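Record 1 of the preview.
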Amino acid sequence: MTFFSPELMTAVRDRFALVEECPFEGKRVFFENAGGALTLNSVVETSAKMAAIPDNQGRDNPAAHALVAMINKAKDDMRVLFNAPEGQFFVGESGTELLFRLIRTAVMGTPDGIVLGSTVEHPATRSACAKWAEAAGKTHVLIAHDDDTGAVSAEAYAAAVTPDTQVATILHTSPVTGMGMDVAAIAKAIRAVAPEAFIIVDGIQHAAHGRLDIASYGIDGYVVSPYKVFSRHGYGVAWASDRLSALPHDHLLNAPGEPWELGTRDTGAYVTFSDVVDYFDWLGGQVSDATDRRDRIVAAGAAIHAHEAALTDAMIHGTGNLKGLADMPEVTIIGGVDNPRREGLVSISVKGMDAPDVVTKLRERGIRTHTRKADHYSGNILDPLGLPGAIRVSMCHYNTEAEVAQFLQAMREIVEETA
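->
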């Protein structure tokens, strides 16, 4: 296991707001990162600063020029973080809204054929594909994910893709199972059969875990929700390939450059994403001697992955004298005990207990987790398992081994109460 050093752990946590305390409930361990990550202190400060500026872009005054420069810098920062030298970045209402827009553009702008996705996907992509496939007279095909692994493989896509596949969607990481998909391998399998298909990826759950590399994926669209990657609510970030941007999509008549943005966007949204990129850059400098910014960001992603893998390993197999979830007979771990696809998230069920009751008991012991119900958000994962609900325990790299130990102690008390 490779945890951050105590010194780095302190430095990391110092950069985030409300790491140990909820302003409404008091001291707590935050294991609800999949629902929204902690916010960087720099994002909080930038948000307040930018909210006070009355000026807009595109005017002939120093403030307007400065705002345009901030937006351009943020887009350059996004290129480095995502490793996307081509295409364009833009912000929208939310990650879900942007997925709907990209998918609508791809589905409505292509010939008759197949819209391909999988059952592991979040309803953001599944709903958009279903809606626009019907509107376009296309067939929406869903590949069944593997219930045992909580994921869908490139081999499953390869077996399902057909030459008339016009649009395909991929979930990078599941917010229910916590499993990551091999986006590059899946895209390669799709393009081997349908080379001109438009491929759009939901990266919302993945982004906080680092290791973003659009140039290596061979895709046409990628979307994240910044509140799940250390920024704030109120906007989403999308990347669109040049070929996707060339399809008809909503924008003002005669607007130059095939833009995607509708109306004047919040400059603060862009600037707070620059704060996120700066943070990855800083972290990479703490864990490597790299001098190139992209290399530091890659190093940060590797360190995040290693630390989070150590956290999930401790949660599943135990730490110190505390047994892990795998050693609690009452607990079932969704996606299996040892699953290399897992990204900082462990979803469980407890025999004889409803998931909301477990979440409440954990909260009463100072542990913030979340219930995933078999509803329109998570029924695609839980229904095949026969589970009405699950307890999602989602960690991030600012969480500590000591917090995992506190969670395991609480779980031991909870399961002993039901014995």
